[in-house]
UniProtKB/TrEMBL annotation, chain A:
InterPro entries: 4Fe-4S_dom, Ac-CoA_synth_d_su_TIM-brl, ACDS_complex_subunit, AcylCoA_decarb/synth_gsu, Dihydropteroate_synth-like_sf. SUPFAM superfamilies: Dihydropteroate synthetase-like. GO terms for biological process: acetyl-CoA catabolic process. Keywords: 4Fe-4S, Cobalt, Iron, Iron-sulfur, Metal-binding. It comes from the Bacteria. The keyword Iron applies. This is CO dehydrogenase/acetyl-CoA synthase subunit delta, TIM barrel. [4Fe-4S] cluster binds at C17, C20, C25, C42. Residues 1-59 form the 4Fe-4S domain. 5-methoxybenzimidazolylcob(I)amide binds at T336, G366, I367, S368, V369, S429. One of its GO terms (molecular function) is 4 iron, 4 sulfur cluster binding.
From TrEMBL, chain B:
Residues 16-299 form the CO dehydrogenase/acetyl-CoA synthase delta subunit TIM barrel domain. It comes from the Bacteria. SUPFAM superfamilies: Dihydropteroate synthetase-like (SSF51717). It holds the Pfam family CdhD. This is CO dehydrogenase/acetyl-CoA synthase subunit delta, TIM barrel. Gene3D superfamilies: Dihydropteroate synthase-like (3.20.20.20). The lineage of its organism: Bacteria, Bacillati, Bacillota, Clostridia, Eubacteriales.
Length: 442, 314
């Protein structure tokens, strides 16, 4: 993606004065290409050359920031079409729409509650979009104010009416909301507003050709803090446009070198969730939905977590003694692996059963119970080593350990190596509550 | 300004698999580009959605799922007919009763049920063993013979049990589902083994042993994307339609099963979406045979796919 040494060399002053610390301009260019030097080291580069080099070395998809403070979000900087080629960088901003015609406070409070604990991390929605359905500028500004006063999430301001946007930005501009949108008709005024507040601006086209045109006009006005909406509304067209924009961006077609926005909004919340899920998998950086119901949002947040995990690094927990609900000496000892999903399934279901317990994740390089068993990493030996190393059996007044039902075959050898009584638990951790009732608390 | 539309020039295609015979035959596969990119190539066939039918009342299905079939759970023939009425593109009969932990039924016994179900429906039949490799190696050949000429899709074969099942399937004119755990090379190796026994390449579906949304879906997703790219760039041993056991995996998850987690909202929409989004995500990655369980999840998937298949030519 970056420039080659020779391409950079062409832009350098060719004085060979060594002031940059390199013997020649060419050597300096090579260092730059390798990312080992900064252009600032040469006092003689012309402004034109600097501009050319900066834009040529810019990432294929620009990094865009929305909002301020703790809940600010970053989008873009993507470098691949397929997650297995490297990874996707900045998770989709799941954005909930609030109309300025509805009870803004009530809906925003609902949105604030969309917080989920999954594999030990808090996952939440990313942004609130206020749409100017009333067509009334004062009412829009009022809705924006109410939202801002009641949530810490960044805002997306949705209106094509420049006067309404101006009023809304007077209220919320300092918090760097996402300004939606500049189109062929209003782009000059919208760009000037976004510029004034240094807020990110969505450029919206009627199709890809029109989008590229408007982007070039906005860039010509000197603004590059941008996102893109191709204007598509049918899901099949949206997916095609997302693919085109990402492919073009990676080929360094600059007008498409920005993260994208897509409206999945639909009157049917189930269809809306289906479309939103598709757009999360297919490159949209911001996905807007209507529903603020947890049953519709949890699947989307989960899919986002899955698609955006780094394929090279499973999420692991530390192999140590975990105490659930202040366990005493008679508490059960549960053996699992240090794949965080495995651990948190067991921890969550044990907590749900209100059962004080010790959980011991064996270090399996962060892979699941069955995978680790098949890979020879979850073995009687590794279980025995972990128990011994952590000294867990000294904390309890019994001699029992519980292993996952899926690896029942390990029980004999594990008993032999640990000297413990090995109880085979249920296959799914969801079976733990009834297992505790029947097999532990009797 | 006319933007340059970026089109990939793929050199090859996914094999086209036919299940069923005569007017009931259904085709899957045949794609010449990645899923739903109509602007770039041919996607001649819709996804095939099969609803699962057990040959004995399932033990561990949650209430939301059993209630959809409450009156037929003990009658596989009635259950299968109900699936067809509900719009299933195929019926996936799972021979649970053969499982040594359940009834340990014999090949002859399960073959009888399979035949009765096949005769009662006018959509293709998929037959799934009990999941114990050795036992499936015994019963599936008997089932294959009993269903001779019906061009069923039979599974799952693994490196442990493929020989007997493949021999029977070739003779009786069926296709096979070949299972391998989330690894392109293992999938290829197994396909090569089947092919060496003279199983034609357009009579195999790949089962990559998927995980559900929240439970390993991302691994399956990437394996499917890589397999589809392999197929489109000419790797014949990866160019088979991909079959996903969506229902089996989705309905294991806590999110689809547990009605009592207040912060997750009511169970109904959550569970249906868990299954439907698991399916749609696999469809986007390259799977085209979906074995599902809940009729509402199936209908939602259909509605979504109809939209996805609309032309997006430029
Ligand atoms: C994702 C996945 C992978 C990923 C690994 C991801 C990871 N970080 O673990 C990858 C692609 C790397 C992988 C690779 C392999 N995999 Co794999 N993989 C899966 C898959 C699809 C999901 C696993 C998963 O994440 N499950 C979710 C976690 C949370 O499940 P879990 O850890 O088992 O925990 C549950 C229960 O065990 C229980 N539990 C957990 N702890 C405890 C503790 C107690 C006390 C109790 C009571 C219960 C309990 O509760 C949890 C929730 O229900 C499964 C198939 C499937 N659908 O399950 C195959 C599967 C596990 N893989 C399998 C195999 C064979 C392999 C490979 C050896 C194959 C190969 N390609 O070479 C490799 C080995 C990897 C290596 N060499 O390092 C097989 C295992 C076969 C078996 N049962 O004998 C499976 C079952 C597929 C199959 N059906 O053949 N795999
Ligand atoms: S300081 Fe600039 S001009 Fe001098 S050698 Fe280095 S690159 Fe060349």
């Amino acid at each position: 993606m970056g420039l080659t040494g020779l391409e950079i060399f062409k832009q350098l002053p060719k004085k060979n004065c060594k002031e940059c610390g390199q013997p020649t301009c060419l050597a300096f260019a090579m260092q730059l290409a390798a990312g080992k030097a900064s252009l600032d080291a040469c006092p003689y580069v012309s402004d034109a050359a600097r501009e050319a080099l900066d834009s040529a070395s810019a990432p294929p998809v620009a990094l865009i920031k929305i909002g301020v403070g703790e809940k600010a979000i970053e989008l873009g900087n993507e470098t691949v079409l397929f997650r297995h080629d490297k990874r996707f960088e900045h998770p989709t901003a799941i954005t909930i729409r609030v109309s300025d015609n509805e009870d803004v406070k009530a809906k925003v409070e609902k949105i604030n509650k969309l917080v989920f604990d999954r594999v030990g991390q808090i996952h939440e929605v990313s942004m609130v979009a206020i749409t100017n359905d009333s067509g009334d500028a004062a009412k829009f500004a009022e809705a924006v104010k109410t939202a801002q006063d009641n949530t810490a999430y960044p805002l997306m301001l949705v209106t094509s009416d420049v006067a309404a946007m101006e009023k809304a930005l007077e209220v919320a501009g300092a918090n760097k909301p996402l300004v939606y949108a500049a189109d062929a008709n209003n782009y000059e005024a919208m760009t000037n507003l976004a510029k004034k507040y240094e807020a990110p601006l969505v450029v919206k086209g009627t199709d890809l050709n029109n989008l590229a045109e408007v982007v070039e006009k906005v860039v010509a006005l000197g603004y590059k803090n941008l996102m893109l909406d191709s204007g598509a509304t049918e899901i099949s067209r949206m997916v095609a446009d997302q693919v085109q924009i990402r492919r073009s961006a990676l080929k360094l077609f600059r007008p498409f070198g920005y993260p994208t926005v897509a409206f999945a909004t639909n009157d049917d919340p189930m269809m809306e969730a289906m479309n939103a899920a598709t757009l999360i998998a297919k490159y949209a950086a911001v996905v807007v939905v209507n529903s603020a119901e947890p049953e519709h949002i949890l699947p989307l947040i989960t899919l986002r977590l899955n698609i955006y995990t780094d394929p090279q690094k499973p999420i692991a927990v530390e192999s140590k003694i975990y105490e659930i609900l202040n366990p005493g000496p008679d508490a059960p000892v549960l053996i699992t692996t240090n794949f965080s999903l495995s651990y948190f399934c067991v921890a969550g279901d044990t907590e749900a059963a209100r059962m004080p317990a010790y959980i011991i994740p064996v270090d399996t390089d962060g892979i699941s119970v069955l995978t680790a068993w098949a890979a020879g990493k979850f073995t009687p030996e590794s279980i025995a080593d972990t128990i011994k190393k952590l000294g867990i059996m000294e904390k309890v007044n019994h001699n029992k350990i519980i292993i996952p039902g899926g690896v029942a075959v390990l029980s004999g050898k594990t008993a032999e190596l640990t000297g413990c009584e090995v109880i085979v638990g249920p296959r799914e951790s969801a079976g733990l509550p009834s297992f505790f009732k029947q097999r532990w608390n009797k | 300004m006319a933007v340059n539309i970026v089109k990939e020039r793929w050199t090859s295609k996914v094999a086209e698999l036919t299940i069923g015979t005569g007017p009931n035959a259904v085709k899957v596969g045949g794609e010449t580009t990645l899923p739903y990119l109509q602007f770039e190539g041919e996607l001649p066939n819709k996804s095939l959605v099969a609803l699962e039918v057990f040959d004995m009342a399932p033990q561990d299905w949650p209430e939301l799922l059993t209630s959809a079939f409450a009156d037929v759970l003990n009658d596989p023939v009635a259950w299968a007919k109900k699936c067809v009425e509900l719009g299933a593109g195929a019926v996936a009969l799972r021979l649970m009763s053969a499982h040594p932990d359940w009834k340990n039924a014999s090949g002859e016994e399960v073959a009888k049920t399979a035949k009765a179900v096949a005769d009662a429906i006018d959509v293709p039949l998929i037959v799934i063993g009990c999941g114990v490799e050795e036992k499936d190696g015994e019963i599936l050949p008997v089932v294959a013979d009993a269903l001779s000429g019906k061009a069923c899709l039979i599974g799952c074969v693994t490196p442990e049990n493929y020989k007997t099942i493949t021999a029977a399937a070739i003779g009786a004119g069926h296709s096979l589902i070949a299972s391998s755990p989330l690894d392109i090379n293992l999938a290829k190796q197994l396909n090569i083994l089947l092919n060496e026994m003279a199983m034609p390449l357009d009579r195999i579906a790949i089962d990559p042993l998927v995980g559900a949304l929240g439970y390993g879906i991302e691994y399956a997703y990437s394996i499917m994307e890589r397999a589809r790219m392999g197929a489109l760039t000419g790797d014949k041993m990866l160019a088979m339609p991909i079959c996903s056991f969506v229902g089996q995996e989705a309905w294991k998850s806590k999110e689809a099963k547990d009605p009592d987690v207040a912060e997750w909202g009511p169970i109904h929409d959550r569970a249906i979406l868990w299954e439907a989004i698991t399916a749609s995500t696999f469809a986007v990655a390259g799977s085209s045979i979906m074995i599902m369980r809940h009729p509402e999840a199936m209908k939602l998937f259909y509605a979504w796919e109809n939209e996805m298949r609309k032309s997006n030519a430029y």
